[in-house]
Amino acid sequence: MMTSNAVEATGRRSRLAAMPWRVRVCVIFLVALVVVALFSLIVSPHDPNAQDLPGRLQGPGAEHWLGTDALGRDVLSRVLAGARVSLLIALAAGGFGALIGVTLALVSGYFGGRTDSIVMGWVEAQTSLPFIVLAITVASILGPNLRNLIIALVVTGWVFYARVVRAEVMSVTTREYIAAAKVGGQTHGSIMLREVLPNVAGAVAVITTQEVPRLILTAAALSFLGLGVQPPTADWGNMIAEGKSYVVVAPWLTLAPGLLIVGFAVAFSTIGDWLRDVFDPQSTAL
To answer: Which CATH superfamily is 27-40+63-279 part of?
Structure first.
């Protein structure tokens, strides 16, 4: 006879297999974007930083598919280079934020008591401040560059993992197999890594799909304000900032990176909604 955990796992696998068409489209879009970002140096038709002042502000055409900017640089090549920067930001900021947040959530939710009070007090204090305001403050203090932008996003983003995953950890630690593992002599570290972490992995996946678009949007906003990636390095945020003065005569300067930012965020959010339904069968299906 199947246990409740086995039944739940079987149901989850069936829901994963029944991926809606809109989610498939989003997955294909993101995979294509990742591939293009990884090979942007190869597939770019021009050097993204090569200037051609006589050819400035050219409209989309055969030579420059997305036109040129105010310095004559190929917009398509810069958009592709910006995709590589955005991928780096998503991987680095999202990865380190998840590592810190999930680690603290495991410790806080598993041990409880004073440890939980300290960690959650820190979380509540930080979440009382608006995310974007805190990110702007940290980025301003550290200075504008890619490394400091990632640090600012990690410092401000880990709390979302900690708050949600901690609740999942507290729920898991009340189950019988955790008590059996303790009686069996397993160490606390072993129980957290082998028993608790795999059972909260679904929540981590859902949070990640919600956090990555917020990180990309925040990174673009900080770059737009001059607190993120600095020119001449191509970034979707600073491309929009550079093109805002020419939005009437050269709308392609802001349209291309803006649409990619929106597409990136919508795709991740759609996948995140679906994953939430997969791991929470009580939620409304797509």
So the answer is: MetI-like (1.10.3720.10)
For residue 68, what are the β-bridge partners?
74
Q: How far apart are CA 135 and CA 153, in angstroms?
A: 6
Domain boundaries, the chain: 27-40+63-279
Token look-up 């608790």 returns 196
In this structure, what are the phi and psi dihedrals at residue 74, rounded to the nearest 5 degrees? Answer: -70, 120
Residue 203: Cβ within 10 Å count? 23
For residue range 3-46, list pLDDT tens digits in order: 545 545 555 566 665 678 899 999 999 999 889 888 888 888 89
pTM, entire model: 0.83
Give the mean model confidence (pLDDT) for residues 246-274: 90
Residue 285 reports pLDDT greater than 90: no
Measured between its terminal Cα atoms, the distance across the chain in Å is 31
Per the prediction, the chain carries an average pLDDT of: 86
Amino acid at 183: V
In angstroms, the CA 158 to CA 204 distance is 12
Q: Extract the tokens encoding 113.
A: 């008591």
Q: At what angle do helices 252-279 and 4-17 cross, to 10 degrees?
A: 150
> Two tokens at 214?
């917020």
